[in-house]
Design goal:
By secondary structure, the protein is of the alpha/beta class. It is built from 19 helices and 11 strands. The strands form 2 sheets. The protein has a 7-stranded mixed beta sheet. Strands 5-4-3-6 form a 4-stranded parallel beta sheet, with helices on both faces.
Length: 463
């Protein structure tokens, strides 16, 4: 037996309802969020709710979106790492530990990532007493590398940028073959990622629907859930929501520059966190209603508009966006969050949604990890002035067109599913039988039901 102590955190139920955490634990976790953010007790701060147990969401102003349909974003700046990906990494690791697949006294964890999952893995892995290595592309934002190192993990940088996931996989196989004690926690494959978003994110959004109705936003049902695909984790919340509202549309987003599901396309792009040039194992593509593509530079320009003082002044002066709204949006959005909003606008237009419909999407991180990207944009396109800000508003938020839209009919879903073969069977060791099993909705239901068993094991481990 090893000597490192096993560290556990919240159950799925406690991440969904933090008020169910033991009061003394909850109070200490909230206090140490500021006093000692690296203390393992901060695992109990993994939730979509704040210290008052209120869901952290924001209804975008119509002046920004240009449409009558309310677009509501769930935002994650209050999570321990500033991104909801920490929930996925915790769920993945606690499951592996409880089922005896990893041991902090023996194993080194490898977290393949293009950013936020690696940041979450560094935080969770090191807090749970594991030696952790994050593998990510060398061209990701400088801030990502700094945050990962600050959490105590080692880094291996691979060639390329966001869409160069194959190079990450190759490095993880190299590490695995070189050391029998390496354990790779691949976000694109492990179902703990799916379960966190299905259960915690999905049910949080379901609870939010009633809150919105009480505020006069919508009528208590949701019409669409829009999410870019990175690992395929966040979009899993749609599976939960569609069980509650069968008519709800699940809309996935990709970069125009890397339209893998849309047209078997490939290429590099700058929307960090999405568009990884393959269909992920944990993505339930048979349940997706449409795929839409968003221009990567529109996302960068849209974020710059919200955070640059000239852009902010233009939004307030020319478009009547309230100063308080601008301040909030400048704090909760990152690049992929802008992508999600542009996709939500396109979704409302494509499906002819009205003022009683509600679209939900996600802000996965915030500006704190993109200052270097904003500096690059300014060096490439010049310092923002009012004409540039006006052009960016008109071409991004107000100018979304209905190009690059593909509905999820049966043939499209089969094509999306079949794309998994090339990564998962040919490269990563899955079998044809395992791939074919994913066509059956019961395969996904069985994984959803495992939440109960995992929560039971977490409670037993605490004893």
């Amino acid at each position: 037996m090893g000597t490192k102590q096993i560290v556990t955190g919240p159950t799925f139920e406690e991440m969904l309802y933090p008020e169910k955490i033991a009061p003394e634990v909850r109070a200490r976790a909230l206090r140490l969020m500021d006093e000692d953010p690296l203390d393992p007790i901060n695992l109990f701060n993994i939730t979509w709710k704040d210290h008052s147990n209120k869901i952290q969401y924001y209804v975008l102003p119509r002046e920004l979106t240009g449409i009558d349909t309310p677009i509501v974003v769930l935002h994650s700046t209050h999570f321990p790492t500033g991104s909801h990906k920490v929930g996925a990494t915790y769920s993945v690791l606690i499951e592996k530990e409880l089922f005896g697949e990893v041991d902090p006294s023996t194993h080194t964890l490898v977290w393949p990532s293009t950013g936020n999952y690696g940041i979450g893995g560094a935080f969770v892995g090191c807090r749970m007493n594991f030696d952790s290595i994050v593998v990510l592309p060398e061209n990701m934002s400088r801030e990502r590398f700094e945050i990962i190192e600050g959490y105590g993990a080692r880094i291996i940088a691979t060639p390329g940028s966001e869409s160069n996931v194959k190079e990450i996989y190759d490095k993880t196989w190299e590490l695995r073959r070189a050391d029998p004690n390496v354990r790779v926690l691949n976000q694109f494959e492990v179902m703990g990622n799916y379960r966190f978003h299905y259960y915690v994110t999905g049910n949080t959004i379901a609870e939010l629907a009633d809150i919105l109705k009480q505020r006069g936003v919508g009528s208590g049902h949701l019409s669409a859930y829009v999410s870019a695909m990175g690992s395929g984790g966040t979009i899993a919340a749609g599976d939960c929501l569609k069980q509650l509202w069968p008519g709800l549309k699940i809309v996935g987003l990709e970069p125009i520059q890397c339209p893998t599901l849309y047209s078997n396309g490939y290429g590099e792009h700058r929307i960090e966190g999405i568009g990884d040039k393959h269909a992920t194992w944990i993505h339930n593509v048979m349940n997706m209603d449409a795929i839409m593509c968003i221009d990567d530079m529109s996302c960068l320009r849209g974020l710059a508009l919200l955070v640059d003082p000239v852009g902010q002044k233009t939004l307030e002066k020319r478009y009547s966006v309230l100063s308080a709204d601008i301040t909030t949006m400048s704090r909760i959005f990152g690049i992929s969050g802008i992508c999600n909003v542009l996709g939500a606008i396109k979704t409302a237009k494509f499906y002819n949604l009205g003022s009683n419909d509600v679209i939900i999407t996600i802000c996965t991180d915030a500006i704190d990890r993109y200052h270097s990207v904003m500096d690059w944009l300014e060096s490439a396109e010049g310092k923002m002035d009012e004409p540039m800000a006006t052009g960016r508003m008109e071409s991004t938020f107000l100018g979304q067109r209905l190009d690059y839209v593909q509905e999820g009919d049966q043939l499209a879903r089969e094509r999306w599913h079949n794309l998994k073969y090339y990564t998962w069977v040919e490269q990563q060791g899955k079998t044809i039988e395992e791939l074919d099993a994913q066509r059956d909705p019961n395969w996904w239901h069985q994984h959803q039901e495992m939440v109960k068993e995992i929560d039971k094991r977490i409670l037993e481990a605490r004893k």
